[in-house]
């Protein structure tokens, strides 16, 4: 049995067809620049089956057309989804609010509830819904399952999830810490435990999901007790284009003195801040090249990023009391040795010692980068949210 996993964004759709039992990826692709005007020969869909890559060139009007094109490329690659033993379609949904905290079979009522939660995730839930509706139309007889980014953090302790604002206002408007990247934090903490030959219930862990979006979590005995993202994915670490934590008064200051409105500030903090806002780029590879050339603000951007990251690591060391493992994952966490080294530099007295050779060695598999005498294991574990979603969907539909 295979599961098609769909991650529908505002202008893109990423997808994978995989076997949840073996983790084999049968095909994968990305639909890009949905709804944008493009040159007639521009590549807007890339689809890979084995070692073969298939492309579609031209504009993609909407998500429905994007999925149609992707399904046609499946056929071109010899994998008609109608005959692919497709047991389920798993959808990544960013925000489940208080309503959804486990994988959920999608019905009309579920789609409406996810739509209603768009006020909490206006940049994410609407395109998630569009992807769901498009897939349901194209595969009407296949069970569709929603897997929520917020689910792993649903049961955060009250002290960790509660904001210190008027309680009635918070309750009326769903204001609490929800956390995000939960599928990744759950998967990676489990993989880290398996790597160490332990059960999750035996370990206290810090997981650092560092990509263009970035988040940290403190996990005690397999249960998340804190995380850096909050009501929205804007809180917490410095990210590629997001500011992360900042004084809320900055928002009022910009509205009052810069003539900005709410939408202006929203765009500033979500799209034009973080590493990009400080340096002009949000790709860490490009940031490293700028630092090497002596770019005036690139090094500052890196230092601000590391400063915030170390603050969260320190806070979670104290919150957990005993930490058995610190794990880096996602694009930056898995590939940038300098970020890992700087994030944990000088923490030997706390039982953390990174081995420089292990840290800089190239590998795509789970590995230990701490020294043999490090009391806390430091790991790099590749995340695989698609596999986690596929397995959750398969479990729900009974395969």
Write the topology of this structure:
Elements: E1 2-8, E2 13-18, E3 25-31, E4 43-49, E5 52-57, H1 63-76, E6 86-93, E7 104-105, H2 108-116, H3 125-138, E8 144-148, H4 158-161, H5 167-172, H6 182-195, E9 204-210, E10 214-220, E11 223-227, H7 249-257, H8 262-271, H9 274-279, H10 284-292, H11 298-320, E12 325-329, H12 330-335, H13 337-343, H14 356-360, E13 367-368, E14 377-380, H15 385-397
Parallel strand pairs: 1-6, 6-8, 9-12, 12-14
Antiparallel strand pairs: 1-2, 2-3, 3-4, 4-5, 7-8, 9-10, 10-11, 13-14
Helix pairs in contact: 1-3
In short:
The chain has 399 residues and is of the alpha/beta class. It has helices at 63-76, 108-116, 125-138, 158-161, 167-172, 182-195, 249-257, 262-271, 274-279, 284-292, 298-320, 330-335, 337-343, 356-360, 385-397, and strands at residues 2-8, 13-18, 25-31, 43-49, 52-57, 86-93, 104-105, 144-148, 204-210, 214-220, 223-227, 325-329, 367-368, 377-380. It has 15 helices and 14 strands.
